From TrEMBL:
<protein>
    <submittedName>
        <fullName>Uncharacterized protein</fullName>
    </submittedName>
</protein>
<feature type="compositionally biased region" description="Polar residues">
    <location>
        <begin position="83"/>
        <end position="92"/>
    </location>
</feature>
<feature type="compositionally biased region" description="Low complexity">
    <location>
        <begin position="68"/>
        <end position="78"/>
    </location>
</feature>
<feature type="region of interest" description="Disordered">
    <location>
        <begin position="62"/>
        <end position="141"/>
    </location>
</feature>
<feature type="compositionally biased region" description="Basic and acidic residues">
    <location>
        <begin position="120"/>
        <end position="132"/>
    </location>
</feature>
Length: 141
């Protein structure tokens, strides 16, 4: 009977330890899931930032090219004398009304104004991918 009492107490201790370990395991799984969600959110933010940087870089280089381009001489016709704001490209019927900046400079006011497809191309160019990998590797250290 004494031996049985020792076994019962030992069993209760083991059962309590197993329950505590299972609870700890469950908490670790939950925290791991939250950590993974946070990592995915940070990775998406890095991708979005890389896309924004690529977009604005392209926009700046296009503006520089436009500014450095040759000025049309007045002898080329009446179109060269037409104010730039009146020579806008027509928008598709489904597109929203363009901003005044778009009409004047030919550039969207925000990165979201550019088509998602073109933005994705700019986002994943090889040099942008390399910069993204470098950023991620520096964050891992």
């Amino acid at each position: 009977s004494r031996a049985l009492g020792h076994f019962v107490r030992a069993f209760e201790l083991l059962r309590n330890d197993v329950q505590a370990l299972r609870q700890e395991n469950q908490k670790l799984h939950e925290v791991g899931g939250e950590l993974q969600e946070a990592y995915v959110a940070v990775l998406e933010e890095v991708r979005q930032t890389a896309g924004d940087a690529a977009y604005w870089r392209e926009l700046a280089s296009a503006k520089e090219e436009r500014a450095a381009g040759p000025v049309a001489p007045a002898a080329q016709g009446a179109e060269s004398r037409t104010p730039r704001a009146s020579r806008t490209t027509p928008c598709s019927p489904s597109a929203a009304e363009p901003s005044p900046r778009l009409l004047v400079e030919g550039a969207p006011a925000t990165p979201s104004a550019k088509s998602p497809r073109a933005r994705n191309r700019a986002e994943w160019r090889p040099q942008e991918r390399e910069a993204l990998h470098a950023t991620i590797s520096s964050l891992r250290q």
